[in-house]
Amino acid sequence: MPSADQYTTARPWTPRATVAAVVERDGRFLMVEEQVDGGLRLNQPAGHLEDGESLLQAVIRETLEETAWHFRPEALVGIYRWRHPGGETFLRFAFAGTVHDQDGTRSLDPDILRSLWLDRDTLVTERARLRSPLVLRCVDDYLAGRRYPLALLQDLPSP
């Protein structure tokens, strides 16, 4: 076991906190097609937590920026840890919810080509294009009924 002084001298390991929106409508899921990692990938509307914002604010913002849909989070589907083959570790907070009032005049993030609605079978068929294994795992957990109250998340004020 490392000693306490090893923690103070070593560079701290910091996972990247991300959020994702799991939105289902008529058996299809809201997805984005994005240019990343040298190819076109499929992902939920997702992105990084920014300094000063809550997890809920982040998932609402990311969904709007990537799809032009206004997202209403209703439950936490899960919290996932995944290590990218490149070495970075991600903590993903996936939220179930609904979308409303798509803003057709809004430009999407530059790496996003389009948003689309895909069923689970299509996601399985397109598995090689999924941004990470988290995409299908979040869908499967959602379909399994995993929902946790948003009250689990606590944002404490800064001193």
In short:
The chain is α+β, with helices and mostly antiparallel strands and 159 residues long. It has helices at 4-9, 55-67, 120-125, 134-143, and strands at residues 16-22, 24-25, 28-36, 39-43, 46-48, 70-83, 89-100, 112-119.
Describe this structure in words.
The strands form two sheets. A four-stranded mixed sheet has the order 5-1-7-6. Strands 2, 3, 4 and 8 form a four-stranded antiparallel sheet that branches. A hairpin with a 2-residue loop joins strand 2 and strand 3. 22% of the residues lie in helices and 38% in strands. The model has no long low-confidence stretch (mean pLDDT 93). The protein has 159 residues and is an alpha+beta fold. The longest helix has 13 residues. The radius of gyration is 17 Å and the shape is globular. It has four helices and eight strands, in the order H-E-E-E-E-E-H-E-E-E-H-H.
List the helices and strands and how they pair.
Layout: H1 4-9, E1 16-22, E2 24-25, E3 28-36, E4 39-43, E5 46-48, H2 55-67, E6 70-83, E7 89-100, E8 112-119, H3 120-125, H4 134-143
Parallel strand pairs: 1-7
Antiparallel strand pairs: 1-5, 2-3, 3-4, 3-8, 6-7
Keywords:
four-stranded antiparallel beta sheet; alpha+beta; 159 residues
Quote the average pLDDT.
93
Strand proportion, as a percent range, falls in: 35-45%
Give the helix/strand class. Answer: alpha+beta
Low-confidence stretches: none
Helix content: 10-25%
Listing every helix as H and every strand as E from the N terminus to the C terminus, the arrangement reads HEEEEEHEEEHH
Number of helices: 4
Cα-based radius of gyration, to the nearest Å: 17 Å
Distance between the termini: 33 Å
Number of strands: 8
Shape: globular
Largest sheet composition: 4 strands, mixed
| Strand numbers in spatial order across the main sheet | 5-1-7-6
